[in-house]
Q: What sequence folds into this?
């Protein structure tokens, strides 16, 4: 039963993350994100649909139901609070917190979650800047001064006129799951709250962007334009 609950939570949080990235959730994207066989994903999606956690339309697009979204918000909140705890209290490095939180999100109970919130002062965002949803369900308000309102991602800013200046709101969880990309962004200083410059560029294998952080530049191919979201103006 616990394995089934963990699977449901992982799928629901992945769909939630795809929505945050501005990508329409589909089974093919779950296959890519979760690294599972298409038959496994199809069977799991069918079961979750029967259980009322997701809906699937005629175009094979996936939608969270009300009950599915409630679970997705709860597990995403636990995941991002766990990341804050691991970085600020346990002392694990930034590049490790996401993978460790993947395990903790399924076992943190309500009482422990509330204690983490109290210890950390109700943070508004994860160490990577991702908004922590559903804090009001715990009867608390986030520390607003730590949060930048998310605006456009790389695909949504206009770089036709040349280099543009932006402030990073957060790095997508998808990027955090890809060690080479996460490390490149961190080493370049392309992190939450950082002021960066962005320009369109011709990259090996296609077009994309170059993001100039405080320490270095990072090339981002066009298919990964969702991995950095900037603050709204």
A:
């Amino acid at each position: 039963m616990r394995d089934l609950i963990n699977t449901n939570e992982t799928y629901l949080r992945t769909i939630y993350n795809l929505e945050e990235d501005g990508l329409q959730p589909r089974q093919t994207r779950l296959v890519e994100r979760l690294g599972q066989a298409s038959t496994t994903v199809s069977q799991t999606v069918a079961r979750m649909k029967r259980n009322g956690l997701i809906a699937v339309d005629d175009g094979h697009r996936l939608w969270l139901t009300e009950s599915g979204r409630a679970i997705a918000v709860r597990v995403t909140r636990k995941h991002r609070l766990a990341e804050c705890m691991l970085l600020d209290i346990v002392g694990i490095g930034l590049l490790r917190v996401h993978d460790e939180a993947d395990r903790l999100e399924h076992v943190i109970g309500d009482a422990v979650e509330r204690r983490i919130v109290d210890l950390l002062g109700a943070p508004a965002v994860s160490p990577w800047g991702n908004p922590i949803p559903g804090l009001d369900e715990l009867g608390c308000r986030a520390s607003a001064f730590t949060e930048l309102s998310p605006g456009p991602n790389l695909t949504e800013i206009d770089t036709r006129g040349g280099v543009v200046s932006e402030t990073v709101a957060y790095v997508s969880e998808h990027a955090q799951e890809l060690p080479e990309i996460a490390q490149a962004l961190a080493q370049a200083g392309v992190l939450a709250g950082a002021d960066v410059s962005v320009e369109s560029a011709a990259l090996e294998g296609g077009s994309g962007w170059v993001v100039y952080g405080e320490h270095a530049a990072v090339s981002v191919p066009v298919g990964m334009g969702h991995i950095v979201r900037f603050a709204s103006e």
Summary: The chain has three domains: 7-67, 75-138, 164-230. Residues 4 and 44 are 10 Å apart (CA to CA). Residues 66-90 form the longest helix (25 residues). Strands lie at 54-56, 62-64, 150-153, 164-171, 195-203, 206-212, 217-221, 228-231.
